[in-house]
Amino acid sequence: MTDVPEISALAINVAIPEQLQWTDERRGEAFRLLTITVRMLPDGTLAAKAYGRPVAGGRGGYVSFRVPDRPEFTELIESAATRAGALWSAHGGLGRAVAEGT
User: Fold this and answer.
1) pTM
2) Burial class, 33, CB count within 10 angstroms (exposed 0-12 / middle 13-18 / buried 19+)
3) Does the residue 63 lie in any domain?
4) Which domain of life, per UniProt (predicted)?
5) What tens digit of pLDDT does each residue of 55-89 get?
6) Domains held by the chain: number
7) Closest among 11, 13, 22, 32 to 68, alpha carbons compared
8) Going by DSSP bridges, is the β-strand pair 11-15/29-40 parallel, antiparallel, or unpaired?
9) I want to staple 64 with a disulfide (CB 3.0 to 4.6 A). Which of 2, 27, 43, 49 is the partner?
10) pLDDT, the chain, mean
11) How many whole angstroms separate alpha carbon 20 and alpha carbon 23?
12) Is residue 86 part of a domain?
């Protein structure tokens, strides 16, 4: 392949350690924030949104929340992005089952 593929998105999901999880409210419903989705923007910077489950139970909607601007979240996001980069760069190629569509 001689052309460089255009990458439209790079994203990872990061589990929020229990001690950093928090509760927030949207549309009158409380959510416990459990994961952060981190995207790498075209300029190489990172953007992040938090997602979770309704405290009252049930599936709830797919609602994003702002990640608090605190050093421990910055560290979590940046270290997860660095780890994901290392994992991507060491990939083992397309697995046989995936390549065969199974």
Assistant:
1) 0.84
2) buried
3) yes
4) Bacteria
5) 998 877 778 999 999 999 999 999 999 999 999 99
6) 1
7) 22
8) antiparallel
9) 49
10) 90
11) 10
12) yes
